[in-house]
Amino acid sequence: MKYEDLLCQALEIEPPWQIVRMRNDLGRRQLDVWVAREMPRRGWIFGPRHALPEVPERVWRHINVGQSRCVVHAATTDDMAQMALPWIGADEQVFTHALSRQIATYFMEGIKFQSICKLLDIPAGDLWKFKHSLDNGKISLSGKDTLMADSGQAKFDIPEVDHPVWGALLTGGLDIEIRVLSLKLLLTKLRGQMQLISDPEVRQMKAHELHHYFVRHAIQLSHELAQIRQN
To answer: Would you give per-residue pLDDT tens digits along the chain (231 residues)?
Structure first.
C-alpha cells in the first residue's frame, strides 16, 4: 500500500477523493495536504486525472497525524458540504468535522480547555471561537462516525464510557480472554501509558479511547464483550 493510501485512510479521505499534493515545510510539525476528486480513467494507457478546482480553495485544521498538525486544502462544492465529509469543515469554521467531533468529545468528557489546546496543539483563540459557536448552536457534530457509535453502543449492549469496567481493563484490575490481535495490541499500549499518567483527565481520555474501539468493532469483539458484561 502506498504512503498516500495509508494517509488517506488515517485522515478518513475515501474515493472518489484523493490526496493530490503534500507539503511538510509550511510550518513546524505541520503537514499540509491538498484533496481533489479523482477524474474517471480514459483508458489503460492513461493514469487517473484529478479535477481542477473551479471554486475558491478552503483550508481547515484536521485531526493530527502523529505529533504533527494536519491542514487540509480543498475546493468544496455544495454537494460536498451536504455530505458532511470528515475532512472538510462547516462554513466559517477552522476545524474539519472530524476534529470538531474529537474536540467536542473531549469537552463532554470534562477535559479542561488548556489541556485540549496542549493535547491537540490548537491555538487558544481558535478553540475559544469553536466553543463559542458550539455553545450557540452554530456547529453540528452529526456525522457517520457519531451515528455509528451511538447505534453500536445500544445494539451490542456496550457499557457506558464512564463505567468502571473500562478503568479496570486499563489498570489490569480486570483481565479477559482476548481473541482479537488488534485489541491485544491496543490494550497493551494503553496499559503502558496508564502507568505513566497521573492526571485524571488524561486517564479518562484513555478510557474513552478504549470504549470507542469497542463501539466501532463490536461485531468482531462479541467474545470479549460477553466477558465485560459479566462485570
So the answer is: 677 788 999 899 999 999 999 999 988 899 999 999 876 555 544 455 555 446 688 999 999 998 899 999 998 887 777 787 999 998 788 999 999 888 988 886 778 899 999 999 999 999 999 888 876 666 766 544 443 444 455 567 889 888 999 999 999 999 999 999 999 999 998 898 888 888 786 788 788 889 888 988 888 999 999 999 887
Q: Report CA dihedral (20, 23, 27, 31) to the nearest 10 degrees.
A: 60
Question: What span, in angstroms and rounded, lies between the C-alpha atoms of 60 and 11?
Answer: 13
Distance between CA atoms of 208 and 161, rounded to whole angstroms?
A: 6
Q: Give the single-character DSSP code of 30.
A: E
Task: Tell me how far apart the alpha carbons of residues 10 and 192 are, in angstroms, rounded to a whole number.
Answer: 23
Contacts of residue 7, defined as CB under 8 A and 6 or more positions apart, other chains included, come to 13, 19, 22, 33, 65
For residue 128, give the amino acid letter.
Answer: W
- Nearest 10 degrees: CA dihedral of 40, 42, 44, 50? -50
Q: Which residue has cell 474501539?
A: 213
List the chain domain ranges: 3-140, 146-229
Rounded CA gap, 81 and 89, in Å?
8
Dist. CA 37–CA 79, nearest whole Å: 12
The DSSP code sequence of 65-85 is ETTEEEEEEE---HHHHHHT-
- Please answer whether residues 178 and 217 qualify as being in contact, where contact means their C-beta atoms are separated by less than 8 angstroms: no
